[in-house]
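INFO batch 0412 | record 1 of 1 | parsing
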Amino acid sequence: MRTPSGDASASYAAEVARLLWPEPWDAPYVTRSRQRTRLPHRDAYLFPSERHPRLLVPVDVPGSSRMLQRLGKGRSALSDPMRRLLERSVHSRAFALTRWPTLRVPGTDPTADSIEQHLAHCFETEVRVGVMLGTRRVNQKPVLQVFDLEGTLRGFAKVGHNDLTADLVRREAQSLAIVSEHEPRSFRAPRVLHHGRWAGLEILV
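INFO prediction complete | emitting tokens
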């Protein structure tokens, strides 16, 4: 079963996925089916829901459930226990039976270019990405969590997808370089692993 990405929020998730897996990958769509397919594809759970997705959590990456720590922490007495339960169960066989909404990016060629192919060169290993979407707005930059296939978190990447956000990403890269030159002792600045352009996007890792 698949549903079109016409819902306002689900469409934003699909738009972001389309930037990260451009043609020849096919258009992303929302599905609740866990039917196996031999064709190349990327599946990511939509959390907390299809109507209000804030996270794209890779289905096939152990350890990616840690992304759920960003959901609802401290907002209510129930949110933390529920979040911890989800985090423990999201990659279980039982959870696969819940038919949780999943954003699927289908393809025909596993070597087709994608953000994962680009980042694999940065980390010198095959990677998978989860996506922190945030709220759709003109200055919103998708933030990626980059995992290796064993589920180890290798780093974070910010994506500038229009003139405004590309400029913000460039300024952040410049600011981090300046801070690093001063060798601060009271705090540790993130280390820039890569900054450049890919498929029309500004990428900072």
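INFO post-check: The helical segments are 8-20, 79-89, 93-96, 115-123, 163-181.
INFO record closed
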